[in-house]
Amino acid sequence: MTLQQFMNEALSPWMRKEGPDSDIVLSSRIRLARNFANVAYPILADPDQLEEIRNFFKEKYENQSFEEYKQFAFISIRDLSSVEKRVLVEKHLISPLLAKYSESAATLISENEQVSLMINEEDHIRMQLYFPGFQLSKALNKAFEFDDWLEEKINYAFDETRGYLTSCPTNVGTGMRASVMMHLPALVFTKQINRMIPAINQLGLVVRGIYGEGSEAQGNIFQISNQITLGKSEEDIVEDLQSVVQQLIEHERHAREQLMDQMRTKLEDRICRSYGVLEYARIIESKEAAQCLSDVRLGIDLGLLGNVSRNILNELMILTQPGFLQQYAKKTLTANERDVLRASLIRQRLELEK
What we know:
Elements: H1 3-8, E1 25-34, H2 47-61, E2 72-76, H3 82-90, H4 96-100, E3 106-110, E4 115-119, E5 125-132, H5 136-151, E6 158-159, E7 163-164, E8 176-183, H6 185-189, H7 193-201, E9 205-208, E10 221-226, H8 234-262, H9 264-280, H10 286-301, H11 310-319, H12 322-329, H13 335-351
Antiparallel strand pairs: 1-5, 1-8, 2-3, 3-4, 4-5, 6-7, 8-10, 9-10
Helix pairs in contact: 3-12, 9-10, 10-11
């Protein structure tokens, strides 16, 4: 795989597949933080040490294959333009933080984009593995296998009492962040989400936006993940998260049923208006586009719209982000130019479905 191939497709191959409860749970992710033993963490390491780690991954893992995820492409962050970095962030292949660590930072990305490994971010290693829908346990098992594959050549920083040692104390222990991306429009529409988020936080979980810490929940998409990594096993963490996510799924389904029973005409009107905006608008900001795409996706899930596929909406959620728009235009765009191009791309993509 080449960098250009990752840039050209908004939707990663694994995202085209259906998973359990995929009408509400968009994806499940396991992320593991690891460090080399006897090497300073990235925040304290000197440039030569970080360069050695970067070169180690290039030498040992570039073009290597891991199970069905096929070959890994090695990409140096310092070789990327600002737009290319932004596109990789928008596809969740790297974090916003890694995009800033340009000198010795790098990433390994599997051919199907389901597995990626961030090098010299906050820790030496941040590996992440995605599955479509609600598949946290399966993602955990595969993450363990990938972790074991890496450990064959790496001596991890590990303490018998504290577990895996990490740059940030909140990751010590398992070094794991388990998360799900959820589409919760009915809970937002009925304002039930406002009382649920504080309750979720009290359970040792955190609710964030689509791009993690510090990001906004655009398009009614929320990321739910664990906060505690020390004192619990990976299986226990996943089990606790699964329990909360299952309750959120049930609440969202119930809220959708209520909307259909009690406010069907108003709901249909909102969904059709949003579809009309997407189909005919000549200028549209990213926040408005995300909201309209969320409404239309809800309409598809409820059987109120039958002429648009769910995958197209997933694709448009990414394709209409600022990085992808500029990648498509092959130049830097002003905010207004992005709004015009965003509207044009949405209209063209919807037209292909007719």
